[in-house]
Design goal:
Layout lengths: L34 H10 L7 E5 L3 H4 L8 H4 L9 E4 L1 H7 L8 E4 L1 E3 L11 E3 L3 H6 L4 E6 L7 H19 L3 E5 L9 H13 L4 E4 L6 H7 L4 E4 L6 H13 L4 E4 L1 H4 L4 H14 L3 H11 L2
Parallel strand pairs: 1-2, 1-10, 2-3, 3-6, 6-7, 7-8, 8-9, 9-10
Antiparallel strand pairs: 4-5
Helix pairs in contact: 7-8, 9-11, 9-12, 11-12
Bound molecules: ribulose-5-phosphate.
Length: about 300
């Protein structure tokens, strides 16, 4: 089937040219949204640095008790004061997070297949009502989107995003589109440029994706709204800090990390080091020195 790029040999992302905006709102692409939505985004992203360190611990909704999340009251609750935003499912929020924590929450809104199904993440529906999101005072609604999924599942997950974007725009609650990549797809610049742009065009107010070694600045440039990166599998602490530094340096607006924080030898020292990289542009080696000296 012919594609839209067939007659153009080379793409130009102008990655070194800042996006023009007609609004003073500090986050890319969100200048024309309502006060409530901008207010919620300003709770997630620090208006001074323009960045966010989100703590993801939603794994259990599909993976059960992931290593490090067996007892979230022990592992996650102590990290809450250091995160800019919490990303979790409603069960963890209600049962583990004190309601006076005063932290913005990116609430996982979709549910469906689990780790016991090879199509985990693909066959999901919108599992939470907007009433539930409002009752839990969600600052954002997170939706998993599988661009490239087979058997109609791509359409299902884009439909979930569209439903939530409609509700989000109506009630002023931003939608976090999460790129979920099937095992058969290549995680490269080409895929993430496509997927993040598709999520933004279909209404996501910010997009979570993965860092790629080559061309990440083009992924950021082609996405009209802020991009944050997931951490992925646990790696050595210096490597995780280096990845965060490179992502921010290439235009990401933050990180939404889980395992690389709560599976670190010292999770509190790790999230502090991560904050210094993301908000203060501290070099990864210096942040790692901080990590080692803070580590218990
Ligand atoms: C899965 C998610 C998870 O929140 C995220 O991937 C978990 O973070 P990490 O990969 O850093 O453990 O969005 O789709």
């Amino acid at each position: 089937m012919p594609g839209p790029d067939d007659n153009k040999a080379k793409k130009e992302f102008f990655s070194d040219v800042p996006v023009k905006t007609d609004s003073s709102f500090f986050l890319k692409g969100l200048g024309s949204y309502d006060w409530g939505l901008q207010d919620r985004m300003s709770r997630i992203f620090n208006p001074k640095s323009g960045k966010s360190v989100m703590l993801a611990f939603d794994h259990g909704y599909a993976y059960g008790p992931t290593a490090g999340l067996e007892r979230m009251d022990i592992s996650i609750a102590p990290l809450v004061p250091y995160a800019d935003c919490l990303m979790c499912a409603r069960g963890a929020l209600r049962s583990v997070i004190p309601s006076d924590s005063n932290k913005p929450v990116a609430l996982r809104m979709t549910a469906g297949t689990t780790i016991l199904d090879p199509k985990v993440f693909e066959n999901e529906c919108v599992g939470l009502s907007i009433d539930e999101a409002i009752r839990l005072n969600a600052s954002a609604m997170a939706v998993q989107v599988c661009v490239g999924a087979k058997d109609g599942m791509e359409r299902v997950t884009i439909d979930n995003l569209c439903q939530l974007a409609n509700l989000g725009n109506k009630y002023g609650i931003p939608v976090l589109g999460v790129t979920a990549v099937g095992k058969e797809l290549v995680r490269d610049e080409r895929y993430f440029t496509l997927a993040t742009r598709i999520l933004a065009e279909n209404g996501a107010h910010f997009v979570k994706t993965y860092f790629v070694e080559e061309g990440f600045e083009n992924v950021v440039s082609a996405c009209p709204v802020p991009i944050i990166i997931a951490g992925g599998k646990k790696m050595p602490e210096l490597d995780a800090l280096t990845m965060a530094y490179r992502a921010i340096d290439q235009g990401a607006a933050g990180v939404d990390m889980g395992r690389n924080v709560f599976q670190a030898d010292d999770p509190i020292a790790m999230i502090k080091a991560l904050c210094s990289v993301v908000h203060e542009n501290v070099k990864p080696e210096d942040a790692f020195d901080m990590y080692k000296s803070t580590k218990k």
